[in-house]
Q: What sequence folds into this?
């Protein structure tokens, strides 16, 4: 089993109102969570990225008001206070360039002794594009075309130094990039940093099968996980790859209690914290596409139709047909007698694994044994102490059963993941 820690910054999982929550900017928060993950022998520490502060109803989204630090800068600092933990940065392939990013990633790999990873993301969002000189955006169909050539070009740059330390000129000419010259960073300890891909579309799955070492997915149920696992692993042969060359790691949440009943009570309370009355209205406004401040969050759902193609929220993806979502919400609210807030809690929050330490350990193991995942990226609801229960109470049981390592076997992220060093292509 592979385990990773996601820093729970600006997402709906995080509960910032909890008095145990600390800053998402102070280095001490990053350091504490990373040290906890390394104490638990996790494979890597994972940072998300946001290139523009999201907006809602013309104002900066509440979860973004304190800002978003740049991932690689934070990870370079964490390299100095950790020894074995992998360090994964989310960096956008739409609004960066291969030469500059390949240098930054290779530098992190050197500074960390071979622990760097790159989570490749794309954007078709003109709102984000306004933050950049060229502005605009890529058509959705072109995002992965650019990303695939971006990754291939970065690998050409990393391979422009031989394993014995000789630099050779590089030259790449393609539809997206034309670059040539001399790369400034020698071949790094891993050869290439580990490549992660996050995406569930058919294009995303194909890109992962062709180019990624890890795919970060949102499939949290056993059945959905098994379907996704079989689909993506089944695509690897077309690229001459073995099943173990791509690790599938869903993002999950865990709630641990002394017993299963206590854990269920804790999980319900966390869901209530995640969806305050204010957050319930905000979530509903994203679906309805219009202001709903006149509605009572503890009352019934709004009795109006959603506004199609609304731009009330900027920088966040509006998932699915709003009319279909509203119809589902109304049916659920009627069937269960739910208020607006209750419906939002029911539809937008979940904990993947809930129970006593032994229950959680058994369920995590079952997912891996039944080929629904190769491991998990844990997203705690508290920063920075949200992993403590898992590391202190669940990991020892996984180690005892042989499902998870007791010690790191190597020093690089590739060694943690069981991935071979890439063959040098001179």
A:
């Amino acid at each position: 089993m592979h385990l990773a820690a996601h820093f729970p910054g600006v997402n709906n999982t995080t509960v910032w109102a909890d008095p145990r929550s600390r800053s998402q900017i102070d280095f001490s928060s990053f350091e504490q969570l990373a040290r906890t993950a390394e104490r638990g022998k996790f494979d890597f520490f994972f940072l998300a990225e946001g290139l523009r502060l999201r907006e809602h109803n013309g104002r900066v989204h509440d979860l973004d008001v304190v800002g978003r630090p740049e991932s690689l800068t934070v990870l370079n600092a964490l390299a100095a206070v950790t020894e074995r933990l992998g360090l994964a940065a989310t960096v956008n392939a739409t609004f960066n360039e291969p030469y500059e990013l390949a240098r930054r990633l290779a530098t992190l790999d050197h500074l960390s002794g071979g622990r760097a990873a790159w989570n490749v993301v794309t954007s078709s969002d003109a709102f984000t594009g306004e933050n950049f000189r060229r502005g605009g955006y890529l058509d959705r169909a072109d995002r992965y075309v650019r990303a695939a050539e971006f990754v291939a070009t970065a690998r050409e740059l990393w391979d422009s130094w031989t394993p014995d330390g000789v630099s050779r000129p590089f030259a790449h000419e393609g539809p997206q990039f034309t670059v040539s010259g001399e790369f400034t960073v020698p071949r790094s300890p891993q050869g290439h940093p580990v490549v992660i891909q996050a995406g569930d579309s058919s294009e995303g799955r194909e890109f992962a099968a062709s180019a990624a070492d890890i795919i970060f997915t949102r499939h949290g149920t056993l059945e959905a996980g098994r379907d996704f696992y079989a689909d993506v692993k089944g695509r690897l042969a077309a690229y001459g790859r073995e099943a173990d060359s791509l690790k599938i790691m869903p993002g999950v949440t865990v709630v641990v209690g002394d017993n299963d009943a206590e854990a269920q009570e804790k999980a319900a309370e966390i869901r209530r914290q995640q969806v305050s009355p204010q957050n319930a209205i905000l979530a509903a406004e994203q679906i309805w596409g219009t202001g709903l401040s006149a509605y009572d969050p503890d009352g019934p759902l709004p009795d109006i139709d959603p506004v199609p193609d609304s731009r009330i929220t900027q920088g966040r993806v509006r998932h699915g047909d709003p009319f279909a979502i509203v119809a589902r919400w109304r049916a659920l609210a009627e069937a269960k007698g739910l208020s607006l807030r209750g419906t939002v809690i029911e539809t937008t929050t979940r904990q993947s694994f809930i129970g006593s330490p032994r229950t959680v350990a058994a369920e995590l193991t079952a997912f891996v044994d039944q080929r629904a995942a190769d491991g998990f990226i844990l997203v705690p609801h508290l920063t920075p102490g949200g992993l403590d229960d898992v590391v202190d109470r669940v990991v020892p049981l996984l180690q005892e059963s042989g499902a998870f390592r007791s010690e790191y076997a190597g020093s690089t992220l590739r060694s943690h993941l069981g991935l071979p060093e890439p063959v040098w292509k001179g």
